[in-house]
């Protein structure tokens, strides 16, 4: 969905090919959260892998080390990607705690993945992870790259974050790859990286009107005369994943409510902000009802400063998204202050 937001309809098979076929260009790892990242970032994540290995006793203490070693050797011996269901005893899992009740095999595989002993080779049609040895997943030239020091890795990641943001606080830059901003002692930190980049002239310390914290402007950042954007944003889109930044930039308060009990939700279950021009102007709770061939707008809301053309522009974007998802039509429910106008605009398009 983040790719669709930027380039419009594309063939999802291209993304699968980039992540699962040679020459592999993307690999899944815990970058910001668990996500697809460019394969060349693998060496920059080795300090994170070491961090997880050191904390095995905290997060994977219930997984027997001997069993983990067996899982690792079994993956190596099979010579192909392996799923947890192929290694566990087949015992049904309970569905308590939102279904996060992993088998011992899945926990062992997750540990080996987090510490870099295994890599993600892809996912099944049911979205189950497929694990394999890094040398059977990643390009040889990537594996041959030298491992930077932890601070060198953090600085490289902050550099990438700065280019992506344009202008940002140190907190934003640290959050982009979920880095420690100011750890104790001489441990690597995002703030130290920011200071290095300022000294090198890559970043300039600036003050942004309305921001309490100092900000940093990348030397290559450019301010366009006009932003011609129209996009539905996933809750996991970089534009909105740092909620404090989103509020500072746009005055747009956004929280994901999928874990909120239904009676307590304000806007809906899976709500996507609608970006028009240079700011979010509304939000919609969407559901792809594939059995019925319908993209359902379960609620639609406008922001106080939404322009008059919001409903028409949103209707056009919903139709485009629906076609990309293979849905035959868009159906707008009655909930939300934007719903009536949006329903009228959708009916005109249909």
Outline the low-pLDDT stretches.
none
Mean pLDDT: 93
Percent of residues in beta strands?
15-25%
Query: What can be said about the biggest beta sheet?
Result: 5 strands, mixed
Total DSSP E strands: 12
Strand order of the largest sheet: 8-9-10-11-12
Report on this structure.
With 350 residues, the chain is an alpha+beta fold. 37% of the residues lie in helices and 18% in strands. The chain is built from 14 helices and twelve strands. It has helices spanning 2-7, 12-20, 46-54, 56-59, 65-78, 84-87, 104-114, 140-143, 150-165, 170-176, 190-199, 243-250, 310-324, 339-349, and strands at residues 26-30, 34-38, 119-123, 129-132, 167-168, 203-206, 215-218, 230-232, 271-276, 279-289, 294-302, 329-332. The chain has a five-stranded mixed β-sheet. A three-stranded antiparallel β-sheet has the order 5-7-6. Strand 9 (271-276) and strand 10 (279-289) form a beta hairpin. Helix 9 (150-165) crosses helix 10 (170-176), helix 9 (150-165) packs across helix 11 (190-199) and helix 13 (310-324) packs across helix 14. The longest helix has 16 residues, at 150-165. The radius of gyration is 23 Å and the shape is globular. The two termini are 23 Å apart.
């Amino acid at each position: 969905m983040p790719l669709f937001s930027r380039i419009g309809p594309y063939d999802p098979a291209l993304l699968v090919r980039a992540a699962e076929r040679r020459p592999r260009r993307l690999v899944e790892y815990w970058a910001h959260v668990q996500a697809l990242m460019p394969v060349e970032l693998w060496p920059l994540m080795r300090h994170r892998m070491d961090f997880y290995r050191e904390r095995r006793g905290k997060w994977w203490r219930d997984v027997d080390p001997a069993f983990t070693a067996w899982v690792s050797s079994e993956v190596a011996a099979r010579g192909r990607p392996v799923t947890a269901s192929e290694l566990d005893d087949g015992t049904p899992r309970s569905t308590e705690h939102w279904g996060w009740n992993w088998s011992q095999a899945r926990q062992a595989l997750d540990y080996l993945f987090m510490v870099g002993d295994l890599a993600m080779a892809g996912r099944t049609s049911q979205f189950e992870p497929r694990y394999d040895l890094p040398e059977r997943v990643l390009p040889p030239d990537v594996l041959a790259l030298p491992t930077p020091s932890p601070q060198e890795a953090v600085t490289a990641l902050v550099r990438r974050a700065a280019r992506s943001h344009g202008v940002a606080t140190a907190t934003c830059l640290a959050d982009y790859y979920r880095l420690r901003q100011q750890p104790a002692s001489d441990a690597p930190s995002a703030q130290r990286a920011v200071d290095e980049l300022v000294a090198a002239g890559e970043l300039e310390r600036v003050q942004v009107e309305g921001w309490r914290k100092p900000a940093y402007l990348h030397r290559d950042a450019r301010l366009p005369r006009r932003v011609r954007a129209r996009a539905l944003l996933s809750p996991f889109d970089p534009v909105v994943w740092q909620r404090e930044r989103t509020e500072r930039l746009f005055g747009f308060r956004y929280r994901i409510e999928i874990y909120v009990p239904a009676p307590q939700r304000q806007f809906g279950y899976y709500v996507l902000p609608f970006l028009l021009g240079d700011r979010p102007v509304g939000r919609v709770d969407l559901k792809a009802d594939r059995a019925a061939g319908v993209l359902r707008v379960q609620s639609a809301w406008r922001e106080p400063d939404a322009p008059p053309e919001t409903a028409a522009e949103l209707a056009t974007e919903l139709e485009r998204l629906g076609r990309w998802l293979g849905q035959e039509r868009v159906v707008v429910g009655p909930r939300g202050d934007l719903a009536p106008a949006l329903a009228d605009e959708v009916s005109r398009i249909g």
